[in-house]
Design a protein that fits this description.
Layout: H1 3-9, E1 11-15, E2 20-25, E3 28-29, E4 31-36, E5 42-48, E6 55-57, H2 58-113
């Protein structure tokens, strides 16, 4: 019987221990067999034939294909990252040049504006003449007597009596 017809007539059986779907024809593996791990990822993929060779490991082919795709995506992302960094550095350099030019322009404008008659004169407060270099006199103390350490304590008549706390400890029995 041709191999194609054998594969058509093959029936799939599930191998519970290994989590594999195995294609069998007359109790021999033929066709594609696939296995998955606990997370559902393919960890076994083979194509079986009866003769002239035992079979082909399709998982290695699949992994090499995924690796090449991953490598091309990484190279593309790396190229994009390098290009973005180059553009960003160019913008930073141009911003520094622009800010240096703006500072020069501002300085030249300030020099030009010093002679400008349209600007108002700066406001300086007047009438406050306190000399802080002199020691404090009793006259500047507001008329209060100086504090002495041996002065008698002043009873505080302003504080009201505080009621007893409801959370105070109970007296002994």
């Amino acid at each position: 019987m041709p191999k194609v017809q054998q594969a058509w007539n093959a029936r799939y059986q599930y191998d519970l221990e290994n989590r594999r779907i195995v294609s069998k024809y007359e109790n021999q593996k033929i066709g594609r067999s696939i296995g998955r791990d606990e997370r559902g990822r393919v960890d076994y993929d083979r194509y079986w034939v009866m003769k002239p060779f035992k079979g082909e490991n399709l998982l290695e082919l699949h992994k090499s294909k995924l690796d090449s795709q991953r490598e091309t995506r990484w190279e593309e992302a790396n190229h994009n990252l390098i290009e973005a960094r180059r553009i960003e550095l160019a913008q930073i350099a141009s911003n520094k040049e622009e800010s240096a030019d703006e500072l020069k322009n501002e300085k030249s404008n300030l020099n030009a504006n010093e002679n400008d008659d349209f600007l108002p004169a700066p406001f300086l407060p007047q009438g406050i003449d306190m000399e802080l270099d002199e020691p404090m006199n009793s006259d500047l103390n507001g008329g209060l007597p100086e504090f002495r350490a041996d002065a008698p304590a002043i009873p505080n008549a302003m504080t009201p009596e505080v009621p007893p706390s409801p959370f105070a400890p109970l007296p002994p029995l």
